[in-house]
Backbone:
């Protein structure tokens, strides 16, 4: 028995290490790249030994890219700000719209509610380009192209279905008797929603909000098509490093490190809530 | 504060749960809703509370039609079978909930909660969250919350179902007094006939979405409207024997193991009708072989319970009969014996419908055994 369990432990450890290596190595390699110049990055064979430099980060933060032939202005920091602004606002709007909608779908079964809920989810099935091509034309006509408002609106395609479906499950898990008890005790519908339903679905709402934030932050295609340079998030902004005079791998790597930092930190901080929120039921008596 | 239900109909997804049910509870009285699970008792309470609306029919409280009145405006207190405490609030805040809804002052809320907690012996756990409470404490908290708002109508949905036997026994003693002190109109749902007998000014037996019988506990026990109700009330269960009344020199009678059991005079009209004879186990006793009408039986087994001894006997024709006698009284525990029937306590039911065939001169009075 002992030998089996030891073998099992070794196998399991190896498997986990392989998985971690597989997923983490690219990030680790990019981390190393972000401290190197293009010359050391493009060495053949590649090596982990190099003289670290902070020039990549310095040029990102100062906003000027020293190329071999010319000096290029880049807006990485404003891209980073755009990402933050777009994600936070989109998730806030998504929560404001999605949470009450989720409650309605969960608790007030009305005619066609299942169909509407499913239609909202189906936005996630459609390839984004399907929506984007007509949307680009419409947005240009009504003046929403290249505006924060337009982007936040389109971002709802990503965050709203996600929030709606996760939070709906949480509201459904709240026993109706608990809400009935609150009503019978003399509280109105709105008070029951805010004092009973919202706190009890709290972990689910937080988890949905975090996931939605990560999805919004990582979005690329909507912003690529609908936003010009000054509204672009980092995901699109990184394209600026592919210049006529060559590809600045070092800056791209540094840019990636900076842009994954917020979601990475958020995921690390909140992973306990995420796992708990997504796996546990809402109400434990 | 009287509560009137008229022709209530309610169906869920095509299933008719309540089918034209009517009930009336006078102000300050306790009505026990008794019936098997799935009979529609909980649905009825929810209709009264206003969290669901009836398809048809009218509910009025103190003469006021409740149609369209929101649950929070009905002046109702309710204790749920599964307690339904607010999991994120302390016991104190749970109990205070109806008082905060009434916008009472802080000190009124404080003293109200304290006095209820003292009454229900949960003062020491007021700061605890529901998940830190034992089932008994949860049950008391839920009860305190139902009482806190001083409701005109109190709905108790089988509140003792989910508590342990000891607490259930204690609460069976305490609860009636507590309810009486509220001076509220009370509807108490239970599946336990002893609880029904102990709490109810009246008992309404519900089955199949309809009221089968309403009456005092004594009426229900001594004169059940049909064999179903006769079976539900009483432990051990009533003996039901297929019989056919005959007319004889001494009047109408039935034969049990060829022995004559006389029936009241007015059953003359029921001669040769297919009937069921209902005999409560405590209406039977062991007698000497020579006593009149003694029925020979074989005693199969005996179960001594604390306060009574239950005996299973089999007649010559193989019919099983249960007898109950107070513990400590002598009786055979095995082998051949004779039993005598207290004919006055015998009930006659129609075999096809199961309905009671009332004996006209039998006036229901007196106490419940």
Residues:
């Amino acid at each position: 028995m002992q030998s089996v369990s030891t073998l099992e432990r070794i196998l399991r450890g190896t498997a986990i290490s392989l998985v971690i290596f597989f997923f983490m190595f690219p990030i680790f390699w990019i981390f190393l790249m972000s401290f190197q110049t293009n010359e050391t990055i493009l060495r053949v064979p590649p090596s982990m030994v190099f003289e670290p430099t902070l020039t990549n980060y310095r040029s990102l933060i100062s906003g000027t890219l020293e190329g071999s032939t010319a000096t290029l202005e880049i807006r990485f920091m404003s891209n980073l700000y755009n990402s933050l602004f777009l994600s936070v606002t989109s998730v806030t709007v998504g929560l404001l719209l999605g949470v009450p909608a989720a409650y309605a779908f969960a608790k007030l079964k009305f005619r066609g509610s299942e169909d509407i809920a499913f239609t909202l989810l189906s936005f996630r099935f459609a390839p984004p380009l399907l929506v984007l091509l007509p949307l680009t034309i419409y947005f240009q006509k009504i003046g929403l192209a290249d505006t924060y408002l337009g982007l936040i609106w389109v971002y709802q395609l990503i965050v709203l279905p996600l929030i709606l479906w996760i939070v709906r499950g949480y509201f459904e898990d709240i026993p109706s008797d608990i809400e009935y008890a609150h009503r019978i005790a003399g509280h109105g519908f709105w008070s029951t929603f805010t004092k009973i339903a919202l706190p009890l679905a709290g972990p689910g709402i937080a988890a949905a909000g975090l996931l939605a934030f990560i999805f919004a932050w990582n979005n690329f295609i909507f912003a690529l098509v609908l936003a010009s340079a000054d509204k672009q998030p980092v995901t699109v902004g990184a394209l600026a490093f592919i210049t006529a005079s060559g590809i600045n791998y070092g800056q791209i790597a540094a840019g990636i490190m900076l842009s994954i930092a917020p979601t990475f930190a958020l995921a690390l901080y909140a992973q306990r809530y995420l796992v708990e929120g997504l796996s546990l039921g809402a109400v434990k008596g | 504060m009287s509560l009137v239900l008229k022709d209530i109909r309610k169906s869920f997804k095509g299933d008719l749960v309540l089918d034209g049910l009517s009930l009336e509870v006078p102000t300050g009285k306790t009505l026990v809703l008794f019936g098997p699970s799935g009979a529609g008792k909980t649905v009825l309470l929810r209709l009264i509370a206003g969290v669901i609306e009836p398809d048809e029919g009218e509910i009025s409280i103190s003469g006021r039609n409740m149609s369209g009145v929101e649950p929070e405006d009905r002046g109702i207190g309710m204790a749920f079978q599964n307690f339904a405490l607010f999991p994120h609030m302390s016991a104190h805040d749970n109990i205070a909930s109806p008082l905060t809804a009434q916008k009472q002052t802080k000190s009124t809320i404080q003293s109200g909660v304290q006095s209820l907690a003292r009454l229900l012996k949960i003062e020491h756990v007021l700061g605890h969250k529901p998940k830190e409470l034992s089932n008994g404490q949860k049950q008391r908290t839920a009860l305190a919350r139902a009482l806190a708002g001083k409701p005109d109508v109190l709905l108790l949905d089988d509140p003792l179902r989910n508590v342990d036997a000891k607490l259930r026994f204690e609460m069976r003693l305490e609860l009636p007094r507590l309810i009486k002190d509220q001076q509220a109109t009370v509807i108490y749902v239970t599946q336990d006939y002893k609880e029904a007998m102990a709490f109810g000014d009246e008992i309404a037996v519900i089955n199949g979405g309809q009221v089968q019988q309403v009456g005092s506990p004594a009426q229900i026990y001594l004169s059940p409207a049909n064999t179903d109700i006769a079976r539900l009330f009483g432990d051990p269960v009533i003996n039901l024997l297929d019989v056919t009344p005959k007319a004889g020199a001494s009047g109408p009678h039935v034969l049990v193991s060829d022995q004559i059991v006389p029936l009241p005079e007015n059953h003359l009209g029921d001669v040769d009708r297919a009937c069921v004879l209902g005999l409560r186990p405590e209406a039977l006793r062991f007698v000497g072989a020579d006593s009149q009408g003694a029925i020979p039986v074989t005693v199969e087994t005996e179960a001594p319970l604390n306060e009574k001894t239950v005996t299973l006997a089999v007649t010559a024709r193989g019919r099983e009969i249960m007898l109950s006698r107070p513990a400590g009284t002598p009786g055979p525990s095995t082998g051949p014996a004779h039993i005598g029937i207290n004919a006055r306590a015998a009930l006659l039911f129609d075999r096809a419908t199961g309905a009671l065939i009332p004996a006209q001169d039998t006036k229901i009075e007196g106490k419940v055994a």
